[in-house]
Amino acid sequence: MIAIKSSKEIVKMQRAGAITAEAILAAGEAIKPGMTTYEIDKVVHRYITSHGAKPSFLGYGGFPGSACVSVNDVVIHGIPGPLKVHEGDIVSVDVGAYIDGYHGDSCKTFAVGEISDAAKALMKSTEESLYLAIEMAKPGVRLGDLGAAIQKYNEDNGYSVVRDFVGHGVGKNLHEDPEVPNFGKAGHGIRLAAGMVIAIEPMINEGTMGVKILPDGWTVKTKDGKLSAHFEHTIAITNDGAMILTKPS
Fold this sequence. Notes:
Elements: H1 7-30, H2 37-50, E1 54-55, E2 67-71, E3 74-76, E4 90-99, E5 102-111, H3 117-136, H4 143-156, E6 160-161, E7 167-169, E8 176-180, E9 197-200, E10 203-205, E11 211-213, E12 220-222, E13 228-230, E14 233-238, E15 241-244
Antiparallel strand pairs: 1-4, 2-4, 3-12, 4-5, 6-10, 7-8, 7-9, 9-14, 10-13, 11-12, 14-15
């Protein structure tokens, strides 16, 4: 069942979203060659807890980190650890913060130093497709319209859209109905309504759409070993369109 949030609930979610966004920015400012993904995770953990919130991901389903830190061909759910990032890498930092009964959820892919033109182009296409979908999101628009737009934009740029994982509703629970695919057919799917809160999160691969889950049960990599980028915002649907909740206060 899809929960419709009141204006008071959305205000609370703005607070959770702001802490989420600011934790990601703190991580992005800290990332440098030679830093471990564990150290990146600690930046996120310190920021969230120092602002009175709890990391949504820590312990969720047994996940051991406060952030998913995914490097290069890791699509999502990278477990923080001893892996060092290097000049030329791209790093996706996916974060959730929980405060006053509500979650925020967002992700951004960062460059480590100077990266290749190919990596820059992949990140650009992924992020632009997210904002394209956000711009479209308003009451009456179908989820298939958003997914189709994200899919077309990235496929026109020569990339593929991950099918095995999708966006989702957000609220009192980190993952709620509805599922929000980054692919689909325009004119299909449920209609958006004012008060719905969803996370739109394109996961876009440089090569094929195929992914594999590693034996740790979390880490998802591209099957062909090529790069993947991931951008995400939690948005509220209002009568005037989409309100991005995961932005700095």
